[in-house]
Amino acid sequence: MLSGSLKPRSRRVLMTLDAVGGVWRYALDLAGGLGEAGIDVLLVGFGPKPRPDRLVEIEQLSRASLVWIDEPLDWMVSDATALVDVAPALERLAADWRPDLIHLNLPSQAVGLSVACPLVVAIHSCLATWWQAVRGEAPLPAPWLWQRRLTGEGLAQAARVLAPSASHATATRAAYGDVASIDVVHNASPAVSVPASQRQPVVLSAGRWWDEGKGAAVLDQAAALSPWPVLMAGGLAGPDSLCPPPVHALALGDLPPATLTALMTRAAIFASPSIYEPFGLAVLEAAQRGAALVLSDIPTFRELWSGAALFVPPREPAALAAAITRLAVDEGERAQLARAALRRAAGFSPERQIEGVLRCYRAALGAPASTLAAAE
Q: Is 23 in the same domain as 169?
């Protein structure tokens, strides 16, 4: 039965996730932190099923379990009719499991959902804000308007909305109107201990390069002018798009997390030419591992990394190459920026993220500020 707070004997959160993008990592890390706060989490998967090796991560979570339902993600279907069974599937699970709160990591999953508990909807990214950042004033194509409509309806259904940065919250309001009750809770990454090692004269970048918003072409053109090799970690082929193979940068493809982490530990510079980033977790992970940052000058990166990175105008390969060259030849500035990024990264801790999410949950439940204090 729903109560006004998450009581110790019945703290339950149902949370959706997928295994295609960064939501998997976000949801698992959040489930782990909520478990430490005394909250049980039922993770509900949508879209393509995860690889078997990923399921091991679920087994390591003491207070979380996973169920996978045969329903798609909105950005992997051609129209809204493919999503008509999403709400009924979630309603059945909620009726059986009786959560105190439902945390949806895709706004369209809230559309038509009728449950006896509050909804918190996280907007990690969306087509409308992506389009505005990447294509500017060009109108959203008619075949995609249904996605914008469903996202807007889902946001309106939420008791609270979670955004990973103030910049993305602003973009969300610009795209969907006055979305009430947006809570900005920055993403996080667990602290790491990086052994002292000689940095290699390479530039690393990581992303889903099939996404036009990641700036693959800009990075490849900058690589032609860079004094150091430029490495591109991440897939070139996406669900419905393909990035041409780079000519000047070295494409590494999708790498196991441990391999990418090792590269971040050794690379002297991490560059991100992204045009659209609601947060940018790869930048945080590189900063934690001691790389100096060269970032495109977009609102999100300014918000998160001002004073701790070298910024360059987006879409300008020559400017990106010039910034890389500047740090390649100036070891002192490179070391200073790496230290500044490492200090800034310490602020994006899982503990702070959990505190922010719990505040959001309390507000959604209408619970007093003291509720859950013992769980923190």
A: yes
